[in-house]
Amino acid sequence: MSKDIYILGIESSCDDTSAAICYNGKILSNITASQKIHEEWGGVVPELASRAHQENIVPVVDAAFKRAGITPEKLSAVAFTRGPGLIGSLLVGASFAKSFAMALEKPIIATHHMVAHILAHFIDEPKPAFPFICLTVSGGHTQLVLVKNYLDMEIIGTTVDDAAGEAFDKTAKMLGLAYPGGPLLDKLAQQGNAQAFTFAQSSVGELNFSFSGLKTSVLYFLQKQAPDFVEKNLSDLCASIQYTIVQMLMKQLIKASEQYNIREIAIAGGVSANSGLRQSIAQTGAELGWNTYIPAFQYCTDNAAMIAITAYFQFLENDFAAFDVSPLARWQF
Q1: Phi then psi dihedrals of residue 285, to 5 deg
Q2: Terminal CA-to-CA distance of the chain, rounded, Å?
Q3: Closest Cα to residue 264, out of 131, 120, 122, 116?
């Protein structure tokens, strides 16, 4: 095996087109083009997302090579997100990766989007020790994962209905905030009183989550209020909603830590950028003696650096994909 392992990673699972270059486990570049067109629709429109990926992928990949300072001929492999995600968006990234690799006569590596979120922790220091528990929270997933090794993971808890990220976005929409509402709710929450209002916290037993009851609780509460109530209490409402979601996440995370007797604790996924969650895990970790790991902001949301670093570990295990591999909108690991 060559000592110089260069991998191009491509991420296109939703509405961010991203490309990154990894060299022997070190990220040389990480370029992402976001799609603003979905804001006017209040959510991601799959057809528009796949079309935007087609427009963005060539310039994004080109920029990744220029930033890394290498040529495509140096690549050892081309990696892409196989799933889960929007099938049209995944197809763009997979098709480009296969064609690019074929032209260069290089192998391809198919990565799992949620595994990549977890392995983003191995891009920079400090890096968690095995085994560790990772709370992965995004718009489509909320999971507790027991990470035994780079490519050996077990889901020990998951949402039975909605994801935490969806709960943030949907409640933000109820408050009249623009899309994407989660980051806006987080910003406003920092100015509000988290104890101002109380909302339902669903309990489904074991290590699983449920957020549908919270959304219903917020909806019914708002329907009973005066027309100008939200405007007058917006920051307090945001703070109270955020506090409730974070408490629900932390309750199960603490339970998982105790059940498995593991104090190496990490968070990953888009919602790991939330200030309330980041503060809570840091504070709880200090109180309970955890070693906590919180990714840099650029590695929380969808990005190709996490695809490239995951592919690097797969490369070391000769975990290559056939060129007829198909993207998967749903893919359990």
Answers
A1: -60, -40
A2: 28
A3: 131
The two tokens of residue 232 are 């007058």
Q: Which tokens go with 81?
A: 């997100």
Q: Which residues contact 139 (CB under 8 A, 6 or more apart)?
A: 14, 163, 165, 166, 169, 182, 270, 271
Sequence-separated (6 or more) residues with CB below 8 Å from residue 10: 18, 19, 57, 61, 78, 79, 80, 81, 93, 96, 97, 304, 307
Residue owning tokens 């506090």:
243
> CA 302, CA 20: separation in Å to the nearest integer?
12
Contact by Cβ (8 Å): 267, 134? yes
Contact 8, 58 (CB under 8 A): no
For residue 333, give the amino acid letter: F
- pTM of structure: 0.94
- pLDDT digit string, tens, across residues 160-200: 999 999 999 999 999 999 888 899 999 999 999 999 999 99
For CA atoms 219, 225, 226, 230, give the dihedral sign.
negative
10 Å Cβ neighbour count for 260?
A: 15
DSSP class per residue in 66-86: HHHT--GGG-SEEEEEEESS-
User: pLDDT tens digits, residue range 71-112?
Assistant: 999 999 999 999 999 999 999 999 999 999 999 999 999 999
Q: What contacts 80, CB < 8 A, 6 or more positions away?
A: 9, 10, 11, 12, 93, 94, 96, 97, 98, 108, 109, 110, 111, 307
Q: Please state, in angstroms and rounded to a whole number, the distance separating the CA atoms of residues 81 and 304.
A: 9
- pLDDT for the residue 1: 47
Structural domains in the chain, sorted by start: 6-118+300-316 (3.30.420.40), 128-295 (3.30.420.40)
The token duo for 330 is: 């749903």
